[in-house]
Amino acid sequence: MPKLDLTQAPVKTGSIYPEPYASQMAGRSSIRLGDLAGLTQFGVNIVALDPGAVASLRHWHLREDEFAMVLEGELTLVEEEGTTLMRPGDCAAWKAGTENGHRFENRSNQPGKFLVVGSKAPDEVATYSDVDMQIHVAGGKARFTYHDGSDWAGHRDLAPKGETK
User: Fold this and answer.
1) pTM score > 0.85 for this model?
2) Nearest Cα to Cα of residue 28 among 15, 43, 9, 10
3) Helices in the chain by DSSP H: which ranges?
4) I need a surface site. Which of 40, 50, 52, 98 has the fewest CB within 10 A?
5) 55: buried, middle or exposed (CB in 10 Å: 19+, 13-18, 0-12)?
6) What local confidence, expressed as pLDDT, does residue 6 receive?
7) DSSP strand E in 80-159: where?
């Protein structure tokens, strides 16, 4: 494989999340290096976050491993156990099926970037920890549901941990 020309990589902005979550991803973009290389077994992306931006909703994957390394700036990793300040060279990883919802946030006043590598399971479920939503991916198509598996029909809040609705 020849050296990749990053200027030719597809760039994705925005999100496939339904509203009100899609608009919360403003200030996030990703350079799709795996797509540029034609990779099919795993994804490789550089995610750029403007100050105040978040990379995703806090989530965990049922069948896909995920690895991230901060490349530029200071980003905050938010997980079940709390937050961790991440600087260039700092890495984190999540094994498939581990219920540790995670995301990166840029709480600084400077842009930040991180590399993310993840396996591409043909059928995948990602669960969003702080909202009542999952994404089911099969045959290249995404379908959103509530945690109970019923079809997504719009935003509904989860009760805070330890409380009931």
Assistant:
1) yes
2) 15
3) 33-37
4) 40
5) buried
6) 92
7) 82-86, 91-94, 103-105, 112-119, 123-128, 133-138, 141-145
